[in-house]
Design goal:
The chain is built from eleven helices and ten strands. The protein has about 260 residues and is α/β, with parallel strands linked by helices. It folds into two domains: about 200 residues, 2-enoyl-CoA Hydratase, Chain A, domain 1; about 50 residues, Lyase 2-enoyl-coa Hydratase, Chain  A, domain 2 (Orthogonal Bundle), CATH 1.10.12. The strands form two sheets. The protein has a six-stranded mixed β-sheet, with helices on both faces. Strands 4-6-8-9 form a four-stranded mixed β-sheet. Strand 2, helix 1 and strand 3 form a beta-alpha-beta unit. The longest helix is centred in the middle third of the chain and has 19 residues. It starts with 7 loop residues before the first strand and ends in a 9-residue tail after the last helix. It comes from Hymenobacter lapidiphilus.
Length: about 260
């Protein structure tokens, strides 16, 4: 029997071999906290070990958000060392998704911001509902992405556009995300899960070994950039010693504009 998860829904269709994992914190717009990240890691580990699971759809509960970001109240309590460890742990777990030999499709049903955008980018393909919005708004909090966002965004949309999106914290609508190559397809909200499962079903009709080796081979191209993840984790941790981080998170929680000083 599959394990149950406090923050996820885990639904395997035995006939098709397609597992649907749903981040299930609708009252928090499915924001990522440490418990959710651990649940995601456990769910994907379980899926890799289950021969009945042949492909995975990852989505969020409700129609407003895939994952609207990290849990800012939880982040605000971290120090430099804890923040770096949290970044490294998030990178490790999201890396498991990227390195899966079973294809993973993100069905993005609304906001995919911060850690949510990073989670979607860790998946092999992204299908966006027409109401989806993507972004890395961490600089608004005096932060940088910590779960691989600085690396995967550049890989997907190119260095120049990635830097623009990271530094402006601009949100990208679904049609623009498609143009940039951040997503594979845009579909109406009502068709999102069916489309994602149909795409997986087409892939699952191919040779499983060859599919897994294709994924492994593409990922191998980016191994030379692995040090970038270490740099990101170190930078993420350093932000937690800054006055700007304290001001950014306090302003967010107090629902007011931040006044940054550069310290």
């Amino acid at each position: 029997m599959p394990a149950s998860f406090a923050t996820l829904l885990y639904d395997l269709n035995a006939a098709s071999g397609i597992l649907t994992i749903t981040v299930n914190r609708p009252d928090k717009l499915n924001a990522l906290n440490a418990a959710t990240i651990e649940d995601i890691g456990s769910a994907f580990a379980q899926a890799q070990d289950d021969a009945q699971v042949r492909g995975i759809v990852l989505t969020g509960s409700g129609e407003k958000a895939f994952v609207a970001g990290a849990d800012i109240a939880e982040l605000a309590g971290l120090d430099v060392l804890a923040a770096r460890k949290a970044s490294e742990r998030g990178q490790e777990i999201f890396g498991r998704i990227e390195e899966s030999r079973k294809p993973v499709v993100a069905a993005v049903n609304g906001f995919a911001l911060g850690g949510g955008c990073e989670l979607a980018m860790a998946c092999h393909m992204r299908i966006a509902a027409d109401n989806a919005r993507f972004g890395q708004p961490e600089v608004n909090l005096g932060l940088i992405p910590g779960y691989g966002g600085t690396q995967r965004l550049a890989q997907l949309v190119g260095k120049g556009k990635a830097i623009e999106l990271l530094l402006t914290a601009d949100m990208v609508k679904a049609d623009e995300a498609l143009r940039l190559g951040l997503v594979n397809h845009v579909v109406p909200q009502a068709e999102l899960l069916d489309f994602s499962r149909q795409l997986l079903a087409r892939i699952l009709g191919k040779a499983p070994l060859a599919v897994g080796l294709c994924l492994d081979s593409v990922n191998a191209y980016y191994d030379q950039q692995r040090h970038g993840y270490q740099t990101e984790a170190q930078g993420f941790g350093r932000c937690f010693a800054s006055d700007d981080f304290k001001e950014g998170t306090t302003a967010f929680l107090e629902k007011r504009p931040a006044a940054f000083t550069g310290n």
